[in-house]
Amino acid sequence: MNDPQKSTAKAKKPSAKPKPRAKAKPSAAPAAADNAAPATKATPAQKATPAQKAAGAVKAAPVAKVAQPTAVAAPAAEKPSKAASLDAKLDAKLRTPICDLFGIDYPIIQTGMGWVSGAQLTAATSAAGGLGILAAATMTFEELEQAIARVKDSTDRNFGVNLRADQADVMKRVELLIDAKVKVASFAQAPGKAVITRLKDAGVLTMPTIGAQRHAQKVAEWGVDSVIAQGHEGGGHTGNVPTHILMRQVADVVSFPFLGAGGFSDGRGLISAMACGASGIAMGTRFLLTQESQVPEHIKAQYVKTPIDGTVVTRAIDGYPQRVIRTPMIDELEQASPFTRFPKAARNALTLMKLTNTKLMDMIEEGRAMKESKGLTWSQLAMAANAPMLTKASMVDGKDSGILPTGQVVGVIDELPTVAELIGRIMTEAKATLASLQVE
Ligand SMILES: Cc1cc2nc3c(=O)[nH]c(=O)nc-3n(C[C@H](O)[C@H](O)[C@H](O)COP(=O)(O)O)c2cc1C
């Protein structure tokens, strides 16, 4: 995340208490499982909200099985024409400015997640009417070329690419995005002005992630088209301002449509983000836990069973605050002295160099630039390779020795829908929530 701030979060031990809610096992038929009457105490996510009750969206209406949201049922007493006009108004309200900016149907973005958001997940999200984003920072240049081609083979809808602006070949990647007519570039680290300007001049929309109001102001001055405002609840590198406060602060200082991120998984969240001035929601963890995500199934199962207090923000991985699932491995890393951490981190730096086809000289050059811009020591630099390598260990290799980046929202996610089911369900619920807030 862009210029992460000092975290004030204290490490928490995972609760030893039984979980307060029932978590369904990952199901091959997620829509059915999701719709079933809860066998045990209803969770907040399973309970009917007033909006759902008003719209008959709970139980009576099955979870949408396609990307297109189902129409909100009109109250019986209402005349069809009035119901139809309300329906059209709700649809129009949910077609926010971000939909027009990105050329998408629904204001839902699947964010770039290293080793997680590959071509399959990205294409599925864009095909379902949202915006999928490929995570390029952990790909070689050739892998990125292939991934872009695969997304284009699967869908003609718009999609994005997540870049790391301090990568040695970033300008080559920028030219690739321009040639491939990629619609949106997002950024894993603070992008430089030169990168923004080149993309913007060539017609690629730019959207950095920010974690503080002043960062939103700074990138707005550079001329970005949008930002993802990620709050403390969010997964991976994260700041310390809660999402709903950050969205309000960002709304006060930018004039372009922006997205809220950190803690979203449903239609109620979408409406709350819109109420705070955002034009939609960007989600990582929720999309990681879908059928199309290629994270190994046993790793997804570990996420699904994580309770609401099972995450921690730690600096022990790469020196920056990062939210992950609290595991024995994280405890060990937090307790390790810098002397024991360093050799491991240095090994990971070399492995990452090989995997991303980075030449030693390029790596040193990249490191020197990061040292200067961020004031890091060489040992902190070596640590920087820890996050991607430890994420790969779990997300690609399925090993226990890896880290599990996640948002707090993992604690209310119970199942693995398809991407189309998820987007359809969010839009249906958002519409019902909005309908319930209407004043006659
Ligand atoms: C497994 C994982 C990997 C991530 N990798 C990246 C990344 O490579 N680049 C980036 O900009 N953000 C990354 N993030 C942050 C997400 O893009 C997103 O901003 C965040 O997950 C939003 O919070 P949520 O998980 O509550 O939805 C990652 C998040 C997760 C969970």
Counting H and I runs of at least 4 residues, what is the number of helices? 19
In the sheet with the most strands, the strands line up as 1-2-3-4-5-6-8-9
Low-confidence stretches: 2-74
Give the rounded overall mean pLDDT. 81
What is the CA-atom radius of gyration, in angstroms? Answer: 21 Å
Distance between the termini: 43 Å
Which cofactor or ligand species appear? Answer: flavin mononucleotide
Order of helices and strands: HHHHEHEHEHEHEHEEHEHEHHEEHHHHHH
Shape: globular
CATH superfamily of the largest domain: Aldolase class I
Brief summary of the model shown:
The chain has 440 residues and is of the alpha/beta class.
